[in-house]
Amino acid sequence: MKFTKKDIQELPHVHKINLVNSLSGYKAANLIATRSNENITNVGVFSSVIHLGSEPPLFGFILRPTTVKRDTYNNIRSTGYFTINAINSEIIEDAHHTSAKYDSTISEFDQTDLQTEYLNNFYAPFVAQSNLKIALKYSNEYAIEENGTILIVGELIECYVNENMLSTDGFIDLSKGNTVAINSLDGYSKVDSPTRFEYQKPLKIVKPQN
Amino acid sequence: MKFTKKDIQELPHVHKINLVNSLSGYKAANLIATRSNENITNVGVFSSVIHLGSEPPLFGFILRPTTVKRDTYNNIRSTGYFTINAINSEIIEDAHHTSAKYDSTISEFDQTDLQTEYLNNFYAPFVAQSNLKIALKYSNEYAIEENGTILIVGELIECYVNENMLSTDGFIDLSKGNTVAINSLDGYSKVDSPTRFEYQKPLKIVKPQN
């Protein structure tokens, strides 16, 4: 089935955002946690966390400034720190509930069974139930002119990985931690064990044009 | 297990990139296809495609300028067009092979069983075997100062979705198309049917602090 840009623009709002959010494929499922200068914790579900580079280890995420997740932004800018916590299948319901628009004075940690965990004196809380957690320092941000979103960039300070997920070559098998993937805006999926491939080199024989 | 930034910096290169690429969670698995002004097609696997917004429908991906995928960048800049094609489990081996460093004069479409498909006179080819395909026009790019990567932004012109994947509310069930997710650099995983949740509103009763 074909949809032109105009077809999409004319869809009802919910139909449109469900569709367009599906098109890019699976998204990472993470909880970003922060703590304000007033000591109020915040945790929100984000499906836009991306790997930006490994030397140094850099990650980014997209923030839509008009959403409740402004608390996340304000806390990151005022304190400089945040954590990214992988969502596993045991906590998807509470993780998704953090998308509700709570007032800044209320912590989503108090409205759900998600628990704060403080490790190694890092300022921002981790999510205790997560088995893959990154502590990050705010590095930079880029305003996306086309639609007013912001790409936030953070650098890894340290990370915590459950040992059962870790392979001898550094690969973390996310399926061993029941890490989920997000489909569109509100779909959470369990994922099978990965098939891994070798580093690819060009074929020595060039195939004829097909 | 804990890794500090320094621990990671001291890991052997492959170990380091396997680990850091795993930390952000599952990644979208897509093939980006282009055609040069000289009529040479190109297709490459990308795990960094993200949804940037729905009104208008905008997508982005991260390009590491030092890799072979420079062909993708050059073709997008010189012609203005590209396609994003979801990878399904039937084509993972060929999709991964496109990461091999072929010379610009050789098309990955000729070195694999991936086939070009031209739809509605769009300049860039689609991947015929993909069941979820987006035609995009280059919109902008943002240089990530921290590590020299580039965020390329494109706007949807049209998209093609297999009807069996489409729900009545616009949600595309990626699992019905056997769309895979990427784990780290070289792991491809099949994904289960999603559990969908309602739009979340704050709880009326504020829970006591835990």
Task: Give a brief rundown of this model.
With 210 residues, chain A is α+β, with helices and mostly antiparallel strands. The first copy, chain A, contains five helices and 14 strands.
Features of the shown structure:
globular, 5 helices, 35% strand, 17% helix, alpha+beta, 210 residues, homodimer
Tell me roughly what share of residues is in helical segments of chain A.
Answer: 10-25%
For the residues shown, what is the average pLDDT of chain A?
A: 95
Question: Structural class, from helix and strand content of chain A?
Answer: alpha+beta
The total count of helices of chain A amounts to 5
Distance between the termini of chain A: 27 Å
Largest interface: A-B, 119 and 119 residues
Based on CA atoms alone, the radius of gyration of chain A comes out at 19 Å
Extract low-pLDDT stretches of chain A. none
What multimeric state do the chains show? Answer: homodimer
The largest pleated sheet of chain A is described as: 7 strands, antiparallel
Number of beta strands of chain A: 14
User: Which percent range describes the beta-strand content of chain A?
Assistant: 25-35%
Widest sheet, order of strands of chain A: 4-3-7-10-11-6-5
